[in-house]
Design goal:
single chain, 115 residues, alpha+beta, Arc Repressor Mutant, subunit A, three-stranded antiparallel beta sheet, 5 helices
Length: 115
């Protein structure tokens, strides 16, 4: 049964694992949502309305930066953060691949059961 679902190994799988690990936190998902809907923002803007401190926001952004999900640039005295859409797209494609493979497996199982 272990050979039924064959996932690509290599950069795609490694990239997806790092991204999914970084997104495995409620606060980081909330930050991604804010960046998706509000565009690039400073830490002060991101921390506004958050239930965590600016220091905690910074820590979460660093984790996401290490995963390639966000990048920052200096604008005057502030650092502005934005999403790396390419990295999110890579993770989405990986999930799509898994979904397609599971659909095929379930179809084979349905055909077997109905035979």
């Amino acid at each position: 049964m272990s050979n039924i679902l064959k996932l690509e190994s290599g950069p795609s799988a490694e990239t997806a694992a790092v991204v999914f690990a970084a997104l495995g936190d409620q606060q980081r998902l909330w930050l991604v949502s804010r960046l998706c809907h509000g565009g690039p923002r400073s830490i002060t803007q991101l921390a506004s309305g958050a239930r965590i401190s600016r220091q905690a926001v910074t820590k979460h952004l660093r984790v996401m930066e290490d995963a390639g999900l966000v990048r920052s640039a200096r604008r005057g005295r502030e650092r502005v953060w934005q999403l790396e859409q390419r990295r999110l797209e890579q993770a989405r494609r990986y999930l799509s691949q898994i979904s397609t493979q599971w659909d095929a497996i379930l179809e084979k199982l349905r055909a077997f059961v109905e035979a």
